Every structure is written in C-alpha cells, then in structure tokens.
C-alpha cells in the first residue's frame, strides 16, 4: 500500500483517538479508555509503517498536522469551541504546512 495513504489513515485515526480522550473522563471510564488506546495503537502502528518510506520528520509533522487540524475542526463543529477568524486562519496555516511538506517531499 502507498505510504502516503497509510500516513493519511494514521492521521485520521489520530483525530479519532484524540477526540475520544474527551470521553474517557481522564482514563477513569474503562470502555472509552480501551477503545481510545486501541485506536491510538493503530494510529502509531500505521505511522511507523509510513515511516519506512517517508522521512521521519515529514511523516511525524504531517501526522500531527492532520490530527491537530481534525481535532480543532471537530471541536468547533461538535463541541461548540470558538471559531474566530484568527483560529481558523491558524488552522489554515497548519493545512498549508501539511500540503507544503507533502509537495516538497518529492514523492507526489
């Protein structure tokens, strides 16, 4: 499978587990905690697989960028977090960084 698709899947799973942390109540609720840890493990595993072909710094930055962007957007949409112009602008900068790292990697 293409390393970039694996990295995308890892990033999407990061969004899921990071958002899921909200439902663990500080890891005091067993079922949500187990689900979050399983999804986090899968995300880390896929990140490690992607790093076989994508440079570590690029893969990690893109993985965290996907996660940060996704969690911030879900926070705005689902949890009524503020959607100020500045916040949206900085989220856009993260997306620009992700695209720039992918583009500059030479592995389009």
UniProtKB/TrEMBL annotation:
Protein name from the UniProt record: Guanidinium exporter
Protein keywords: Cell membrane, Membrane, Transmembrane, Transmembrane helix, Transport
Family, per entry: Belongs to the drug/metabolite transporter (DMT) superfamily. Small multidrug resistance (SMR) (TC 2.A.7.1) family. Gdx/SugE subfamily.
Keyword Transmembrane set for record: yes
One MF annotation (Gene Ontology) recorded for this entry: transmembrane transporter activity
Record GO biological process: xenobiotic detoxification by transmembrane export across the plasma membrane
A Pfam family assignment: Multi_Drug_Res
